[in-house]
Request: fold
Amino acid sequence: MAPQAMETPLCAGRLMVHEVYPGLTATANDVSYLSEHELSVEMEPSLLCGLVLRGENDMMNAEGYGQVTKRLEQPTVVGFGRSTRFRRICKAPYTSCAAGFILKPSFFDRFGEDVTDDGLIALRDFFSGDFRVETLPRSARVIELGQRNLDHPYNGQLGELFLESNTLSFVIEIAELLKQERRLVAQIGRRHYDRVMEARDMLDANLVTPPQTLDLARQIGVNITTLQDNFKKVFGTTIFGYVRTQRLLMARVLLLDYRLSVAEAGYRVGFASPAAFTAAYRRHFGHPPGKETARERD
Reply:
């Protein structure tokens, strides 16, 4: 089943919420909000995995637990062991483009008590407490799977088979990322892993004018060498490399969703010149930023 077209006075676009396997529901949406409104839903114990594919970070409020932020192209996993109400203010104009899945405890019934894989154990552990949120590192494979759930061309029985297979692959990749996280925690320790996550959050909040690495290390309470080493172990890149990638992702949003010029988008994300921005954009995406604006005009 592909996402279905929808149009209401509040929003328009494509939406899919479809159970593909007992206890596993695939989700995908590409929806533009036409007027400001509030969404509120109470959910039974679940694991929610969401991936923002395009646009800005997505935020919702979990009653009693505070704000949950889903970052662009970084999988966010939310688990809660008791019924929880979520609220979200949908502002207009705003476009939400995302994919993910919902797991219920019944999904694990097929395994009985004999769950030995670290990734599956990590997924099941999200049901063991009141509330837990994890933002995982960017994964090209996860982005590809999310995009497939949103844009696949199949319908009928073939669509059912594709969606089940793709969503199960999505679950497996998230389990692998959680398994990697467990290995990193075992390698560098929970305290240092949490400090790296804290550093990432501070960088994400100040991408245009990020703190110097020494200041960042001081603010989170570790020495600069430890922070640099652990950051690279967790994200596979340097602090500078991480900031540059996030800036380019933000610039792509400005080009595609806000239709800014190349020069303006580069300036907004902190590049000193259009030439430097174009060169960095080409290295990361494989084509110049002008191709995005040309694609939008077409």
